[in-house]
């Protein structure tokens, strides 16, 4: 192979280098890969803005989402009657402005009803926090839920029925000089309206169970005797360590009998009757937040949990669950775990 002979003229050299660069550019452009959208990736609908935004109200507890998609990130779950301003639509989703957070999100259009512009309190800056809290309680009587801590009735947007659970995150001073609680949803209620359970008592261990079970199990396990008054007893092997009265299922939703085991545990649960086929607003419907120490033993929803809305200890009063007092539920939470045997019988 002969040696490459470079031209003597510098002008010829520049022309040859320029031609080489052009060739390299053409070759590299031809080899750049192109990418097409995967057929499996969903295409989100485009958001069409409204010429004139309108106000709406939520019809039921609803999660606000980052995109018009049920799988999108959930920002928060708002209560029924919470006001939202509809800015546009994306398919079956509404693009809304939340006056409480001054942010935007998406919500299914079917969950919105006609509404009016809320009170200016909805956009008021919150007062400074005096005490940070993390407590679960309930309202002792029907109580207005307010956008802002003030007795002005225009600040309230819905009512909490007596006995409704409430999660308190802070104490603030209202514009009336009184103390108010801020809820986990950013709403406000007077301190005087909220009650909290007494702290768990030191476990009072029992030497004997009311009725010795026909069968025992190794390790820690739970025996439930449905004969009235119904009783739940914690056992270590064949030794009873604590026994307590328990609320059981009633009517067609009686607590099932059999040998089960704890499947999963939720320290602070929200219970929704619609998940077991009972509409929330129908007879027997419910939507309960702050259900502490919940331990499920059946995939159909039956569980052992703290029952703050009833005190019918030892008798039927639930939809199949086993309801306990705060101290008893707290004890069973520390005593049991996933896999703990639960034996239920008459």
Layout of strands and helices, then pairs:
Blueprint: H1 10-31, E1 48-58, E2 62-65, E3 74-78, E4 83-90, E5 93-98, E6 103-108, E7 112-114, E8 129-139, E9 143-146, E10 156-160, E11 165-173, E12 179-183, E13 188-190, E14 194-195, E15 220-225, E16 231-236, E17 239-245, E18 248-249, E19 258-261, E20 264-272, E21 287-296, E22 303-306, E23 316-318, E24 322-324, H2 326-335, E25 341-345
Parallel strand pairs: 15-25, 18-23, 22-24
Antiparallel strand pairs: 1-4, 1-7, 2-3, 4-5, 5-6, 8-11, 8-14, 9-10, 11-12, 12-13, 15-16, 16-17, 19-25, 20-21, 21-22
Any overview of this molecule?
It contains 2 helices and 25 strands. With 346 residues, it is mainly beta. The chain folds into 3 domains: 48-118, SH3 type barrels, CATH 2.30.30; 124-195, SH3 type barrels (Roll), CATH 2.30.30.170; 220-345, L,D-transpeptidase catalytic domain-like, CATH 2.40.440. The longest helix is centred in the N-terminal third of the chain and has 22 residues, at 10-31. The relative contact order is 0.10.
């Amino acid at each position: 192979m002969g040696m490459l002979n470079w031209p003597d003229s510098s002008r010829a050299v520049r022309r040859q280098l320029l031609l080489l660069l052009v060739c390299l550019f053409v070759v590299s452009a031809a080899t750049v890969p192109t990418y097409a959208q995967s057929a499996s990736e969903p295409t989100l609908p485009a958001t069409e803005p409204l010429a004139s935004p309108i106000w709406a109200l939520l019809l039921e507890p609803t999660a606000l989402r980052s995109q018009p998609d049920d799988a999108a990130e959930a920002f928060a779950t708002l209560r029924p009657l919470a006001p939202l301003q509809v800015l546009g639509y994306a398919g079956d989703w509404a693009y809304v402005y939340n006056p409480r957070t001054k942010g935007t999100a998406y919500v299914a259009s079917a969950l919105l009803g006609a509404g009016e512009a809320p009170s200016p309190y909805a956009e008021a800056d919150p007062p400074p926090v005096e005490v940070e809290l993390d407590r679960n309680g309930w309202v002792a009587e029907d109580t207005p839920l307010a956008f802002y801590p003030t007795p002005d009735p225009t600040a309230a947007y819905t009512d909490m029925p007596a006995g409704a659970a409430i999660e308190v995150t802070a104490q603030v001073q209202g514009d009336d000089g009184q103390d108010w609680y801020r809820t986990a949803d950013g709403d406000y209620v007077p301190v005087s309206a909220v009650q909290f359970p007494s702290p768990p008592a030191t476990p009072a261990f029992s030497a004997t169970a009311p009725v010795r079970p026909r069968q025992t199990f190794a390790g820690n396990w739970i025996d439930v005797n449905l004969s009235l008054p119904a009783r739940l007893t914690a056992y270590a092997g064949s030794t009873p360590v604590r026994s307590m009265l328990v609320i059981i299922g009633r009517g067609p939703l009686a607590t099932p009998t059999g040998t089960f085991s704890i499947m999963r545990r939720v320290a602070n649960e929200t219970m929704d009757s619609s998940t077991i086929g009972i509409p929330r607003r129908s007879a027997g419907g419910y939507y309960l937040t702050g259900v502490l120490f919940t331990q499920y033993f059946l995939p159909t929803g039956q569980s052992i949990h703290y029952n703050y809305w009833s005190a019918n200890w030892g008798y039927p009063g639930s939809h199949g669950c086993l309801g306990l007092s705060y101290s008893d539920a707290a004890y069973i939470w520390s005593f049991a775990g996933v896999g703990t045997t639960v034996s239920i019988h008459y």
